[in-house]
């Protein structure tokens, strides 16, 4: 409702239209498919579908207007008492309403949701951060005792077969060892990231520090290519949210008084500045440069433009709103 009021107000200013005309257009659009489109809130979305499906009895509309929370909790007894109907009747009406689509555009979305399963968990216990690996999806591999017994003295397995089993067992043991080694490396890398980026874990993204693969590689005495492979498509669950391990590796932006700040921190600052700007006088890239310099960050205008594009922020000329 608030969004509609804002849009209607802006449209009134642009076209000098009466609010009743805008309401009439909205009502017309709400007759389009899918049912419930252009609703101003969830209740209106459900009412529209009830009306189009011929299920807009007074009692159904009462449930939609006043008892959606009860419906969500499956509190049919509560609904029946409040509306003075039998419990079985409340269940029947709930079944009708549950068939409505709260997000009418969802059936037209062909993209399947991508669920992220963290590979590493970082939890704060007291004043200390604890790193643990998520091994739920890790295959539990071991060599079958059947083949071990086949290699024992006295077994009736031929020599040629024993040699073949020994060769396969060596390959299996190498695979198992490699998986365990990869987990140990992932743990070491995560601990190193925690060490370098502790301010992020304590205070948030604005305190992210510049970090490159070489820093972690030298810290845990491994090659950079190994760190790169281990951090690819791996995710860490932190008290600040879920982040890809690559997120913690940032190029540095120089500070005027020495030191550096992570590029992700600068992006966050730009985003916050644009969010708080006067929509009638949006900040230009040059003005953003000056504001950041006042905050001890030495950054070029072209870098501001690049970060702004990455963040999906339009140029100031296109962000400006009409008076």
- β content, as a range? 5-15%
- Succession of helices and strands: HHHHHHHEEHHHHHEEEEHHHH
| Class of secondary structure makeup | alpha+beta
Task: Tell me, rounded to a whole number, the average pLDDT.
Answer: 85
Outline: flat
* Main sheet makeup: 4 strands, mixed
Instruction: Let me know the number of strands.
Output: 6
Short description:
With 323 residues, this protein is of the alpha+beta class.
Structural write-up:
The protein has helices at 2-15, 19-29, 42-52, 58-66, 68-72, 76-83, 87-98, 145-150, 159-196, 198-203, 213-220, 224-231, 263-276, 285-294, 301-310, 316-319, and strands at 120-125, 128-133, 235-238, 241-244, 252-254, 260-262. With 323 residues, it is of the alpha+beta class. The protein folds into 3 domains: 31-108, no CATH class; 120-248, no CATH class; 252-319, Arc Repressor Mutant, subunit A. The strands form 2 sheets. The protein has a 4-stranded mixed sheet, with helices on one face. A two-stranded antiparallel ribbon has the order 5-6. It is flat, with a radius of gyration of 30 Å. The two termini are 23 Å apart.
Write the topology of this structure:
Layout: H1 2-15, H2 19-29, H3 42-52, H4 58-66, H5 68-72, H6 76-83, H7 87-98, E1 120-125, E2 128-133, H8 145-150, H9 159-196, H10 198-203, H11 213-220, H12 224-231, E3 235-238, E4 241-244, E5 252-254, E6 260-262, H13 263-276, H14 285-294, H15 301-310, H16 316-319
Parallel strand pairs: 1-3
Antiparallel strand pairs: 1-2, 3-4, 5-6
Helix pairs in contact: 3-4, 6-7, 9-11, 11-12, 14-15
């Amino acid at each position: 409702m608030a969004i509609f009021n804002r849009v209607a107000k802006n449209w009134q200013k642009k076209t000098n239209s009466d609010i009743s005309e805008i309401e009439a257009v909205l009502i017309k659009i709400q007759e389009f498919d899918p049912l419930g489109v252009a609703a101003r809130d969830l209740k209106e979305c459900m009412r529209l579908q009830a009306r189009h499906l011929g299920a807009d009895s007074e009692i159904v509309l009462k449930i939609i207007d006043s008892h959606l929370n009860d419906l969500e909790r499956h509190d049919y007894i509560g609904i029946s008492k409040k509306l003075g109907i039998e419990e079985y009747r409340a269940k029947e009406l709930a079944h009708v309403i549950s068939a409505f689509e709260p997000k009418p555009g969802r059936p037209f979305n062909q993209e399947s949701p991508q669920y992220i399963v963290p590979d590493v968990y970082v939890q704060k216990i007291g004043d200390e951060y604890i790193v643990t690996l998520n091994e739920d999806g890790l295959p539990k591999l071991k060599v079958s005792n059947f083949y071990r017994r086949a290699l024992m003295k006295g077994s009736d397995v031929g020599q040629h077969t024993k040699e073949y089993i020994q060769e396969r067992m060596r390959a299996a043991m190498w695979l198992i060892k490699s998986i365990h080694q990869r987990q140990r490396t992932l743990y070491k890398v995560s601990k190193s990231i925690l060490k370098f980026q502790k301010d992020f874990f304590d205070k948030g993204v604005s305190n992210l520090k510049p970090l490159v693969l070489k820093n972690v590689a030298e810290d845990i005495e491994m090659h950079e290519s190994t760190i790169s492979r281990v951090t690819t498509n791996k995710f860490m669950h932190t008290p600040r949210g879920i982040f890809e391990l690559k997120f913690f590796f940032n190029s540095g932006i120089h500070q005027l008084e020495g030191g550096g700040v992570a590029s992700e921190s600068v992006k966050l600052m730009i985003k916050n500045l644009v969010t708080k700007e006067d929509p009638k006088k949006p900040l230009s890239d040059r003005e953003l440069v000056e504001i950041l310099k006042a905050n001890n960050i030495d950054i070029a205008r072209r870098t501001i433009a690049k970060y702004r594009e990455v963040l999906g922020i339009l140029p100031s000329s296109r962000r400006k709103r009409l008076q």
